[in-house]
Design goal:
The chain is α+β, with helices and mostly antiparallel strands. About 50% of the residues lie in helices and about 15% in strands. The relative contact order is 0.09.
Amino acid sequence: MKYFRLAVVAAVPFVFGQTALAQTSTPDPVVAIVNGAKILKSDVEAARIQLPEQYRKLPMSQLLEPLVSQLVRTKILAGKARTDKLHETDDHKRRLSLFEDRMLEQALMRQEIKKQITEKALRERYKEAIARFPEKEEVRARHILVKTEDEAKAIIEQLEGGADFAKLASEKSTGPSKTRGGDLDYFARGQMVPAFENAAFALKKGEITIKPVFSQFGWHVIKVEDKRQSQPPTFDESRAQLNEQMSQEIATELVKKLTESANVQRFGLDGSAPRLKRVAPGK
């Protein structure tokens, strides 16, 4: 848990400034009190959001104790810092101002994104994406993967004798799809190794390979269950991706628009005006 502690320590110093954003109309119980200062459930949730992704996925039952412990630690140390009047120093005020700027930047982004990404806008973007969706032939196949060609030939003989493909796959295949009766679901060209792909697309619906197919994984017996033209994802399946794309576009456009109308002056690290870049003749 050493790395987890480091992750919590890194995240929590930013939490209290974001508590108001995390609070909602739902009950926000007190989870700890430090020298009279309350730590709320929303503080813990805000701290969790700041963790690296691999830790955010952990259940709150595992995160609660270390997060609250770090929040308590922060409250204690912050209290001592205020007693020492560190919050009145110019350095602290400057850092606080920069942090507030970042929070306001994020608040503005959220406001613009919420304003522009409506249900109607998402559905219109989905229609545009569907119109450009490429049509490809897809195959739904099952396979039985074994180590030797003789094993594969024996399986083909059993299938020709009327054996059930899915049952044989679950019993004899060494591939991970054996738990699904060898079902690989639908796939298009370019998603499987060439030898397997070529054999599968050469079969008609319901056909089984009459000869074993070799690839770097072993020997395959393949059955094509269905063929179709590729289907675009549904609106619900696309919603998150569309939302992300539109959010990035809105943020980029907002920054561009405001930057173009802003008066920006840049200087070197020593405060001096940067040298003008020389432009070659004719450019």
